[in-house]
Amino acid sequence: xxxxxxxxxxxxxxxxxxxxxxxxxxxxxxxxxxxxxxxxxxxxxxxxxxxxxxxxxxxxxxxxxxxxxxxxxxxxxxxxxxxxxxxxxxxxxxxxxxxxxxxxxxxxxxxxxxxxxxxxxxxxxxxxxxxxxxxxxxxxxxxxxxxxxxxxxxxxxxxxxxxxxxxxxxxxxxxxxxxxxxxxxxxxxxxxxxxxxxxxxxxxxxxxxxxxxxxxxxxxxxxxxxxxxxxxxxxxxxxxxxxxxxxxxxxxxxxxxxxxxxxxxxxxxxxxxxxxxxxxxxx
Length: 283
Ligand code: BTN
What we know:
It contains six helices and twelve strands. By secondary structure, it is of the alpha+beta class.
């Protein structure tokens, strides 16, 4: 079966996430498309594309989106939440991608994944989160997430979360070779993009419901921190007001990264303002 048929036949084990799915062979951006159809489509609608001509990344960057290799999708959310909570949804999706990838690895004969997915060492070929929302393997990025919100006063009218996962092997731009990789490149076997999408959506729905019930990341924080590649490592905080280094201790219930400085003080770093890098490289 071709990718389009597989995606359209997908019935994730969810109540709402991906229960309505639209597929495009080529589109400008799945996130732009979700924003265009937001009014007439239900919460949880997913748009998938084989390729994007204007894939968007964070900080105004473009997201290269060649056909035939990767997973590009966006999901529409209509949460009854105040506007400042939108950025936390990015972390919820990061956990879903990390765990969706792990579940697919668990199903692979010969994969090196241990039983269960809690407490696995966050290193080597296990997917981990680089705060706030990049998914990395072996120190290189395999997935990017872009969250965009439309406001109605101080409330969220809708939120679009766009996800790009590097699944198959494809040539990378020179500047990305040291920073990016793909699931196939790291694991050495071919991945089923549709099965991966289903796993991500199933994890996302469950984490999202917990997030909405708590009104914060309080109930997910421990799980997120267990997958945090930067945890207990020295990081460089690229704050526009001045760079500093410290030890990353994990996120708080607002998704801020707690960084402990040499004098013992702890700063809560908000993702909208600053970036965090490993002292010796990307993670
Ligand atoms: C990043 O810069 O790390 C975020 C990249 C997000 C890319 C995905 S691909 C599917 C969706 N559509 C887009 O135009 N962007 C997101």
